[in-house]
Design goal:
Layout: E1 9-12, H1 17-28, E2 44-48, H2 52-57, E3 70-73, H3 79-88, E4 99-102, H4 107-115, E5 120-123, H5 128-141, H6 148-151, E6 152-157, H7 167-174, E7 178-181, H8 188-196, E8 201-205, H9 213-222, E9 227-230, H10 235-244, E10 263-268, H11 272-278, H12 280-283, E11 290-293, H13 300-309, E12 323-327, H14 335-345
Parallel strand pairs: 1-12, 2-3, 2-4, 4-5, 6-7, 6-8, 8-9, 10-11, 10-12
Helix pairs in contact: 1-11, 5-8, 13-14
């Protein structure tokens, strides 16, 4: 038997997205045949597994008071997912339903969920930008328990996920709405959102290659709040910069800059689905930011950041310690890469 773990890393196993997702849910919400912890979900957010836009823009719904963790589904529910929904048994307190369907979730899936005895409520439609408006409006009508989630929004590319896979994790952590945009144009639904909420601060994440300077400049016509851009040299560098970022005025940002024994999640930079699943570990538990990696090696930017953060070794060794959560099987992140993570977060040698 081979565990696939190391002393300071835990792998959330799965040969496919559904098994990784189920294992993650059972770690975060333990208990059988029903979850037995007081932080059980109040609802479940269901988004299509085929398109990243809907899961990204719905990530804020996970945060309190909704407490609605996200499941990714295909055109039909398998028994594993049905059983997991029943095990979680959300109650939908102060929400329109127990299960929130995002955008174009298949109507067959909706009927299957209802057949389990769970009520459903759909937010959005086939248009990701209209869905982005409706989800963000829903989030503000059911306000985040965090002040940050009531005063700020993220603006991300609705055309590519490469530079922003780690942002939904923070949205799940603090309930900050996620809006989507085209590279060279702010879509009409997003303009309409700002007309209803003209005082929000806007945080753009990504380079000019994904959200243009023109879009950034145009935001000043739509909001009286501040407009801030977070950029970087690569997706790996961006994930590090996002983890380090902190705005003292709004208090937004992970601010992971101290040797305090931090925990992080790690996913392959090509797999946005694993990134969404890792958001559970940003919402609860160690509240871990997400860092991106290659399958067969840990990028230099990430490695140097981890080594900067690891606490000094004490005699005898004692906390704080670091930890890493690695998502997927060895085809997603190689075992050697996991060992590189371990070597980067364990105490330095004396």
């Amino acid at each position: 038997m081979f565990s696939g773990n190391t002393v300071d890393t835990t792998r959330i196993w799965g040969e496919d997205i559904l098994s990784v997702m189920t294992n993650a849910f059972q770690m975060i919400y333990p208990g059988y045949p029903t979850t037995m912890v007081h932080w059980r979900p109040n609802a479940i957010t269901v988004a299509p597994a085929s398109q990243f836009q809907y899961a990204f823009t719905a990530s804020s719904l996970v945060h309190d008071p909704n407490k609605a963790p996200m499941m990714l589904v295909s055109d039909q529910l398998n028994e594993e997912v049905k059983n997991e929904m029943l095990r979680l048994s959300p109650i939908g307190n102060q929400l329109p339903a127990q299960v929130l369907l995002i955008g174009p979730v298949n109507s067959d899936v909706q009927r299957e969920i209802q057949a389990l005895g769970l009520s459903t409520y759909r937010i959005g439609n086939q248009d990701p930008y209209q869905t982005s408006l409706e989800v963000s409006q829903f989030r503000l009508l059911h306000p985040s328990a965090a002040q940050q989630g009531r005063e700020n929004v993220f603006l991300l590319s609705g055309e590519t996920f490469a530079e922003t896979m780690f942002v939904p994790n923070y949205s799940m952590h603090q309930g900050i709405p996620v809006l989507l945009t085209e590279k060279n144009n702010v879509p009409a639904p997003i303009q309409h959102f700002f007309s209803m909420h003209p005082d929000l601060n806007v945080y753009i994440v990504g380079t000019f290659e994904t959200v243009s300077q023109h879009v950034e400049a145009s935001l000043h016509r739509y909001t009286r709040g501040k407009v801030v851009r977070l950029t970087g040299a690569s997706p790996y560098d961006l994930s590090v910069r996002f983890s380090r970022f902190f705005d003292e005025e709004t208090q937004l940002g992970w601010n992971r800059n101290q040797k305090n024994g931090n925990a992080f999640s790690f996913v392959n930079h090509k797999d946005w689905r694993h990134a969404i699943i890792s958001g559970l570990f940003s919402h609860l538990g160690k509240h871990a930011p997400l860092l991106l990696t290659q399958r067969d090696s840990l990028p230099r930017d990430v490695k140097e950041y981890l080594r900067f953060l690891r606490p000094e070794r004490k005699k005898p060794p004692q906390p704080p310690f670091m930890h890493g959560f690695v998502f997927g099987d060895f085809h997603s992140i190689d075992y050697r890469t996991q060992i590189e993570i371990e070597e980067s977060i364990i105490f330095p040698t004396m």
